[in-house]
Amino acid sequence: MKPHSIVGTAGSQGIGLGLRSGTTGMVVLGLMSLYLLLVPVVNVVPGVEVYDGRRLAQLAVLGILAVTLALRRSARDVWFDVFSTLPAAARWGAGLVLALGLASAAQAALPRYALLEVGHLVLLAVLSMAVAGGVRELGERADKLLVGFLCLSVGLYLIRFLVGYAAGVMGLMPLWPEGTLGFSHVRFFNQIQTWTLPLLALPVFLLSTERRGLRVISAGMLWMWWMLLFASGGRGTLLATVSAMFFVALVYGRRARYWLRVQGVAALAGLALYALLFKGIGHAGQSIMDRTLTSDSGRLELWAHAWAAVVEAPLLGIGPMHLAYYPDRVENAHPHNVLLQWMAEWGSVATVLLVVLVFWGLWAWVRQGRRQVYSHRDLHRWPVRIAITGSLVAASIHALLSGIVVMPVSQMLMVVVVGWALGCYQPSHRSHRAAAWKHHLLAGTVWLALLAVGLGVAPDLPGLPHRKEIYTDWTGSYDLRPRYWQQGFIGYENDRYPTEPVHPK
Fold first, then answer.
1. Which residues contact 310 (CB under 8 A, 6 or more apart)?
2. 295: three-class secondary structure by DSSP
3. How many angstroms separate the CA atoms of 283 and 275, rounded?
4. CB under 8 Å to 306, separation ≥6 — which residues?
5. What's the number of domains the chain is made of?
6. Pairwise CA distance, residues 224 & 192, whole Å
7. Looking at the DSSP assignment, which residues form a beta bridge with residue 325?
8. I need a labelling partner for 430 at 20 to 30 A (CA). Which of 69, 181, 191, 408 fits?
9. Residue 161 lies in a domain
10. Helices 111-138, 23-38: inter-axial angle, 10-degree rounding
11. pLDDT truncated to tens, each residue of the chain (505 aa)?
């Protein structure tokens, strides 16, 4: 058998203009990879809640890359190399969604928070295009970098798990996930698994048979990732991943057999490891085997509340982030359903446009991918496409049941996977050099998005270490409902920007 190695899907020289040195791509992908390597494993911002620390780290990465894009023409050249190859209808559609979001924010109860969400999502979208540019610029090096950092991140977390598990078996702490989880809620960990389970099969798929040791380690990591899914009770991730496997089998047929076999064996091995470590040697809390599969876990009530908001403001919505508006006496800061969330907050028109864009993009990706995996004899080209398809489909399904598009680490994985797909996609026409006014427009948009995020976040920063206690003081509730921050409700304060806990009379 011919030795396998991880290679790119876009060619090492990139497509179009401004792709010579690779510096921009390395900076973008390097920072994103560093975030995904460290942030899921350690608390990078001491003194605040883990969730809030990860949001602050996300803002730092977004800020660095956005300022780089706004100031450096060479970085914008790489960005336009991807953007200019999108269909004109897609570009205009995205612009219209942004305009509708701004209109919705203008009439929201708290425009500061509404504009914060709009600006934040603009930066995520811009960064996703920058990741795509980096993938095209670096070619096979991008695949190696992303797969390598993904494996390192998962490996570091598994080391953390094994150390905690040993301590738990000795009675020094609760077993995972009650102990050493590293996330403020186990479902946030499951959201990361939704993005990464399909991708984690890539090293097993691509490493040569001569590198047997690395293949065994990679397979073991995938097995343990499945084991933690069973141990955590993540029904949404399991449903989404299995559904994505069926979708991949339907679309790619025999080309997907090896990927499906790797995932199937890993799932069975993970189940066996779960039985050994969590039912045999140790006895952890609620697992997927202990949960009622037919329970909605309160989602129907959340969806009913979101639908009531849709009926209240069908065209422009109640405003971005405003399902978290506390005076409405909501039970959660988001409805665990991305469609209802967008319809309620951004309005039905923006949601329909967004759904059309997403399905259009996914259809174009799958159609081209099917042609390529059957037309190329080179086995190095299509594994990445199959894995990315599984990740995108799994996340899309899970988004209908969770806040996978809300949480900071999951958002960064979304940026990477979507950007990776855009970078691998081979457009039907070549890019062209963007006019000077387009450069000014992009830079201006980035600066305005940064301004909206800065003005939205700055008033919250002094009180961020005590945000949980402040919320309890003003409301009497100890419940935490994550949205932008760990305590995600907005509009509950009696004064404008409390910075420390007080006890109102």
1. 317, 340, 343, 344, 348
2. coil
3. 10
4. 323, 335, 337, 340, 341, 343, 344
5. 1
6. 14
7. 490
8. 69
9. yes
10. 120
11. 333 444 344 443 333 333 344 677 888 999 999 999 999 988 889 889 999 999 999 999 999 999 999 999 999 999 999 999 999 999 999 999 999 999 999 999 999 999 999 999 999 999 999 999 999 988 888 988 999 999 999 999 999 999 999 998 998 888 888 888 899 899 999 999 999 999 999 998 777 666 788 889 999 999 999 999 999 989 999 999 999 999 999 999 998 999 999 999 999 999 999 999 998 887 766 666 666 666 777 889 999 999 999 999 999 999 999 999 977 667 789 999 999 999 999 999 999 999 999 999 999 999 998 888 877 655 566 889 999 999 999 999 999 999 999 999 999 999 999 999 999 998 876 767 889 999 999 999 999 999 999 999 999 999 898 888 888 887 777 778 899 999 999 987 655 555 666 554 3
The DSSP call for residue 72 is -
Q: What tokens were used for 409?
A: 């680490």
The position carrying tokens 């039985």 is: 275
Token readout for 274 is 């779960």
Extract the tokens encoding 234: 């993540």
Q: 355 in a domain, yes or no?
A: yes
Which residue pairs, CB below 8 angstroms and at least 24 apart, start in 253-257? 255/373, 255/374, 255/382, 255/386, 256/386
Cβ atoms of residues 489 and 334 within 8 Å: no
Q: For the chain, how many helices (H) and strands (E)?
A: 18, 0
Pull the structure tokens for residue 284.
């952890």
> What is d(CA 118, CA 481) in angstroms, rounded to the nearest whole number?
20
- The reply to whether 18 falls in a domain is no
Angle between helical axes of 436-457 and 111-138 (0-180°, round to 10): 130
E strands present in 223-264: none
84 and 94 Cβ atoms separated by less than 8 Å: no
The structure tokens listed for 151 are 């494996």
Locus of tokens 């610029």: 137
Residue 489 lies in a domain: no
